[in-house]
Amino acid sequence: MTAGSTIKTRDMVYIALFTVLTAICSWISIPTVVPFTLQTFAVFFTCLVLGGKRGTCAVFIYLLLGTVGIPVFSNFTGGIGALLGPTGGYLVGLLFSALIMWIMEVMFGKKRWVSIVSMILGLVACYTFGTVWFMIVYTHTTGAITLKKVMVLCVLPFIIPDLLKMSLAWILGRRFCRLIV
């Protein structure tokens, strides 16, 4: 076995482990219009520990598993319907969060300020994509809804918990990234 294949195997194992971590974190859920979960923590933690490339792969695989019907989303749900439903945009937004973290890492390195700014920008991207998606799907299936109403239901209640999850991911991620090469 060559050194290159060992690294690839290790990467696959880490990606798989952090994909499972994301699924487990999504199952820890408080049901609301958009469920409170630890998914955002898992995405930020994954990208901080594994780096942007491997972290984004883990998030993509997590979404792919859920899309094909494996119950990895909140409340043990899965399937394309979960992504096409009103809250599916927030799930897809997790991929945008990971991509932003990867792009920022490539552009500016793994400095502390880069991690913090990339998590904030990633969260804003997730909120933005998810909110627009929610409005489109909700309007199509139920009727018109205002941006203010969507913000009250789907964004405002999550800001403080997501900032806390982001802080925890940053603290733990800084410690764990030393253990994973």
Polypeptide structure, described:
By secondary structure, the chain is mainly α. It has a single domain, classed as Arp2/3 complex 21 kDa subunit ARPC3. 77% of the residues lie in helices and 0% in strands. It has 7 helices and no strands. α1 packs antiparallel against α2, α2 packs parallel to α5 and α5 packs antiparallel against α6. The radius of gyration is 16 Å and the shape is globular. The two termini are 19 Å apart. The mean pLDDT is 93.
Q: How are the SSEs placed, and which strands pair?
A:
Blueprint: H1 3-27, H2 39-50, H3 52-67, H4 80-84, H5 88-108, H6 112-141, H7 147-176
Quick recap of the structure?
By secondary structure, the protein is mainly α. It has 7 helices and no strands. It has helices spanning about 5-25, 40-50, 50-65, 80-85, 90-110, 110-140, 145-175.
